[in-house]
Design goal:
The structure is a single chain. The protein has 9 helices and 3 strands; from the N terminus they run αααααβααββαα. The chain has helices at about 10-35, 40-55, 60-75, 75-85, 100-110, 130-140, 145-155, 180-200, 220-250; strands spanning about 120-125, 155-160, 165-170. A hairpin with a 4-residue loop joins β2 (about 155-160) and β3 (about 165-170). α2 crosses α3 and α5 crosses α7 (about 145-155).
């Protein structure tokens, strides 16, 4: 009789706890680095768990929901009552960033790229391709000079006053010296990525596209090559998706607010020292689908 290959409940619970530890570790690193005490994190986690449990049972009467939430989360009834009666925390809006939009247009729009695909150095004023035309393509509600000043403040662009031209300083929207904006990126990007992963785990695994490639056994020199390979992939993705998304937004302009949806599409890379593996371990590139390792025959 064949053994049941499905994981046992305790094995699944251990895997879940391992996943939670992996997710919490970098959050703990950020909290310690920025001086956020444990009590603040504990309260934030309690609020999140109470909110999730309440969302799971929206039809329950208030006097019953406290008991149900307490049972589901393990948080005592007094704490649940306190948290459910507290004023709701303001959610961070997924609003427009005009600086980000201007930066993205500059990178993705063919009119603002040279023959090699690099962002053009733009005259500040005049017809397209100019920074003035680029800014007007993003919004008519903000003066182009104000938008330029924001890009300069974020150290994303540089103004050559002698020639009255504007150039990008880098090809990734990573503003320096703006911790609030950087933390906003963390909230938006990591939050949506994690939400997609959780939806997939709790559902059929097909709700959101989520794939990754993993490889170990690389040298520092190889990592330099990998980084140089990633950049063009992001540029290609940006150039293909931004115009298509803008066309769809235009076509869907008459949608009722209740029917509108949002999407976040990203590409990330992370590298670190690989843990020491047993000598017999096989190094291989791995994706969500198994990839067979190709090894040269060893001479004996």
């Amino acid at each position: 009789m064949a053994a049941d290959p499905s994981p046992k409940p305790d094995a699944e619970q251990q895997a879940l706890l391992g996943a939670l530890r992996a997710v919490l570790a970098p959050l703990a690193t950020l909290a310690v680095a920025r001086g956020v005490p444990y009590a603040a994190l504990e309260d934030a986690l309690k609020r999140a768990m109470v909110r999730s449990a309440a969302d799971a049972h929206p039809q329950l009467a208030p006097h019953r929901s406290v008991s149900r939430i307490s049972t589901a989360t393990g948080i005592n009834r007094r704490e649940v009552t306190r948290l459910t009666q507290a004023p709701p925390e303001a959610a961070r809006p997924h609003g427009r960033s005009l600086a980000n939009e201007a930066f993205t247009h500059w990178i993705a729009d063919r009119a603002y790229r040279d023959r090699k695909g690099a962002p053009r150095v733009l005259p500040r004023l005049g017809p397209a391709p100019s920074f003035e035309a680029l800014a007007h393509g993003v919004t008519r509600d903000v003066h182009p000079r104000s938008l330029l000043d924001e890009l300069l403040r974020l150290e994303l662009a540089v103004l050559d006053e002698a020639t009255d031209t504007v150039a990008l300083r880098r090809e990734g929207f990573v503003p320096r010296g703006d911790q609030v904006r950087m933390l906003g990126f963390l909230s938006d990007n990591v939050g949506d990525h994690l939400a997609a992963s959780v939806d997939n785990v709790l559902g059929d695994g097909q709700r959101h596209f989520e794939q990754a490639i993993f490889a170990d056994g690389l040298s520092a020199a190889s990592m330099d090559v990998v980084r140089k390979l990633i950049g063009p992939q992001w540029k290609a993705l940006l150039a293909a998706l931004v115009p298509a998304l803008e066309q769809m937004i235009e076509a869907d302009g008459d949608l009722a607010p209740a029917d509108r949806r949002r999407v976040r599409i990203g590409l990330y890379a992370y590298d670190d020292a690989a843990p020491q593996a047993p000598p017999s371990a096989t190094n291989a590139a791995r994706t969500s689908q198994p990839v067979a390792a190709k090894r040269r025959p060893r001479k004996t």
